[in-house]
Amino acid sequence: MEPHPIPQNITSFQFKLIGDMTLKQFIYLATGVGIAYLTFIFLGASIPIIAWPVIISSSLLGVAFAFLPVGYRSLDHWMIAFMKAVYSPTKRGWKKSGKDYKNEPLFNSRLSMFLQVTSTAAVSQTTTQVPLAQPSINQEEKPAKPQQDVLPSSEELQKTVELAKQAQDLQNQIVENERKLTQIKVAASKPSPIPVDYSQEIKTILENLNKLLEKASAIKNQLSQLEHQEQHNMKNILVGTTPVRIVAPSKPKQTPLTLTSSANVINGIVKDAENNYLEGVVVVVYDKEGLPVRALKTNKLGQFSSATPLPNGTYTVELEKENLFFDALQMELAGEILPPLMIAAKRGVINS
Question: Which ranges of the chain would DSSP assign to H, the alpha helix?
Fold first, then answer.
C-alpha cells in the first residue's frame, strides 16, 4: 500500500483564483511569464542569443515555482532554506538565563577548567571529617578527679600549638588563593576587546590549592593521633569518667569591658572556681572541619583575643590547664563584634 502524503497547510487558508491555483502560484507564474514576454519584446529581435535563454529559463522557473513541489514543499521554501544555510553563521553559542557565553573569554578553556575543579573536589573529599559527638547529658553529672598523668605533657601542648600555627598559615594561604581565583573570575566576566586567556593562572592556583589541602590533611592526621592518645590515657586512668559535654556558650552579661573592636574576633576572660583570673590557659579554636585555626594563651588578667578576624561559620573553642576542666564551647560567627566570653573552670572530684 502506498503511503499517503501528510497535508502541510492544515492551519492556514490560501485564496484560490482559478480552480486549485492559489494567489501565490499565480504571482510566480505571472512573474516568470511577464519577464519572458518583456525580454521577447525588447531583446528578442536585436539580441536573440541572449534573449531566448532568458525567455526559456524565466518561463520554466515561473512554472516550477508555481506548480512543481519537492518533498511536498514548494521551491520558494527550499530557496529560502538554502539562503539561510549559506548566510547564517555556522558558529553556535550557548545562552543561559539571558546571557550569551560565546563571547566569554574562558569559554574555549571550559573543559580544562572543569577537569581541574573536579580533581580539586576529589582531593578535598579525601580529607576525613570527624563529627563532634553528641553525648547523652545526665541530670546529675559529677566530674571525676584527674590524676597528674591524665593531662597532656608540655611537649604535647607545644606540638599542638605549633600545629595550630601551621594550620592558621595554611588557612591564610587558601583564602588568598581563593581571593585570586575570584578576581580572575570577575575580570573574565567583564567584556574586553581583546580576549585574555586565564587558563594558565587558574591552573597554577588550583595546583597550589591541591598542595595546601594535602598539607592540611597531614596536619589533621597528626592532631587526630594526639587526641587519640589523650583519650586513651583518659580511659585508662580516670575513675568514673563522664563524657565531655559540648554546650552552647551562655549569653554574656552586659559589661563595659571590650577586648576588641573588630568583627569575628574570638575573645574572652578565663577564671577559676574562686573567681580568680587564670594565666597561661591554652585556648585552641577549631573550625567545622576539625582543623585548629587559632592557638591562644591567656595573660595575667585571664584575657585572650585573636589577632585577626575569622571567616563566618561554626567554631569550637577548647581550653586546657593543669588540674582544671573546661567545657567545649561552640559558637557561630556572623560578621558581628563579639563581647568577651566569661569562662569559668571546673575542678575534678572523686566519685564516692
Answer: 23-43, 48-67, 75-87, 110-126, 154-189, 199-237
